[in-house]
Amino acid sequence: MKIFIRLFIFLLIAAALAYGYIWYKNKQIIDEAFTSLRTFTSASYDSTFVSADGKSVTRGIKLTFPGTSTDASIEEIQVGTGNLIDSFKFIRSIESGMWAEDPNTLVFKIKNFQFPLTSDLDSTSAFASSSESDLLTEMQLAGCSNKNSVSISDLNEMGYSQISLDLDTSINIDPNLNQAKFTIYASARDYGSYQIEFLLDNFTQNSFASKLKNVTMVLNNDGYVNRLNEYCADLVGISKEEYQQRHMDYLQHVLYNQSIYLSEEFFTQYAEYVENPRSIKISSYPDNSMDPFQLMSMSPQLMLSSLNMTVTINDHEIRQLFGARPNPEDLPALDEPVKVVDDSIETVQGLTLQDTDPSLLAKYINYQAYFDYRGKSYKGTIESVEGSVARINTQVSAGNYLQMPFRISEIRNLQVRREYQAD
Question: Is 203 exposed, middle or buried (CB count within 10 Å of its CB: 0-12, 13-18, 19+)?
Fold first, then answer.
């Protein structure tokens, strides 16, 4: 009996020492972080500790956005693993540099991040409106008096005076399957909320060889879309109902000029969303797991074709997302001049299967290719070109692909599914 009592006391002391070590290192890390932050702006916190489940908890944070007089506050920040033992190993791995002991679960939470939307935020690079917009912003602001971004002053005009944000992110790694699941959830009160989940294949720590297996994004609207439509209607000088139709007309032109041709079913459901915005869900299950960094260099047309997306609007799943390319004369008439590009060719999902000189293969990395080689026909995705050899991820059977080398000089009848352009 005594040996069990001694063992229990020993474990209790060891746990207390481990917790004390974690508490001390947490305080040290937080203090160092705020000392570094104070070199750029004013920042402080009330308290920090380690919770029973191994998370670093810091409360009562106050800071000023660099270069402005705008103060922000955060009620609580949590960073950590799933338990005290993993947190102890994690801190030890940071100190030793032996990252093999990284935990399989990491979480990061921000509770009640509040900051006022003041005019001086418009002068900072982090909040200032960009002169160039991305495709999603162009779609959102189609027909909104030629605006290409939403500034802080725009938000003020829409009735927003501050942002209150909760953020919850996590990473869960399965070392047996070499997979990692990332989850991001953000709620901004009357702006709305969104959740993003994506799964990576071939995931190993300290490796950049991970492949995107699937991704899901859900956007729930709690008022922002309605306020934006009302604001844009006022800018144009028409009623909200008239602006909704104007937005749909301009949206078709925006998509057409990006060579993205969506179905009538999509436009019908999206029109209902504009009138009664509730939720949009986008899911992607690529035929082949993709390198996430490939997406950054893809055109909108190639990205949509590669991601194999499913779109659900107001709980209605779009069964056919893409449609035929419309004739330019069939596009809605607009009350402002818009340049329309007419390439007069038939396209599939915004891309066109075109005859291509094999010497140009290096221009079309990540694009689909169809060709003959040594008496056989192949199709696949162009992975790389090195010297006289092209490596192509080739379909060998339904759902199965193999990366193979092909001598460029022996490739015949090459066609690449790509944007229209003169060679």
Answer: buried
CA angle centred on 43, ends 42 and 46, rounded to 5°: 145
Q: Report how far residue 183's alpha carbon sits from residue 169's, in angstroms, rounded to the nearest whole number.
A: 5
The Cα 281–Cα 184 span in angstroms is 14
Poorest-pLDDT segment among 12-21, 216-225, 239-248, 324-333: 12-21
| Averaged pLDDT, 56-63 | 91
Question: CB under 8 Å, gap of 24 or more: what pairs does 199-207 form?
Answer: 200/292, 201/289, 202/178, 202/289, 203/173, 203/178, 203/179, 204/178, 205/99, 205/100, 205/102, 205/173, 206/99
Tens of pLDDT, residues 350-386: 567 788 999 999 888 888 889 999 988 888 888 889 8
299 in the same domain as 184: yes
Check residues 92 and 393 and name the one with the higher pLDDT: 393
pTM of the model: 0.72
Q: CB burial class (10 A; 0-12, 13-18, 19+) of residue 129?
A: middle
> 80 lies in a domain?
yes
Q: What is the CATH number of the domain that holds 402?
A: 2.30.30.100
Report the run of H or E that residue 221 belongs to, with start and end: strand 211-221
Question: At 233, which amino acid appears?
Answer: A
Task: Show contacts of 299-303: CB within 8 Å, 24+ apart.
Answer: 299/419, 300/135, 300/258, 300/259, 300/260, 300/350, 301/258, 301/259, 301/260, 301/349, 301/350, 301/351, 301/419, 302/350, 302/351, 302/366, 302/367, 302/418, 302/419
Q: Give domain status of residue 278, yes or no.
A: yes
CB 269 within 8 A of CB 320: no
Q: Taking a C-beta distance cutoff of 8 angstroms, is the pair 395, 379 a contact?
A: yes
Task: Please give the residue range of the domain that contains residue 399.
Answer: 352-418
Place of tokens 């015949």: 412
DSSP, res 61:
E
Q: Residue 405 has what pLDDT?
A: 92
Q: Is the dihedral of CA 174, 178, 180, 181 positive or negative?
A: negative
Shortest CA distance to 66 belongs to which of 40, 43, 33, 44?
40
User: And the tokens for 169?
Assistant: 């992110």
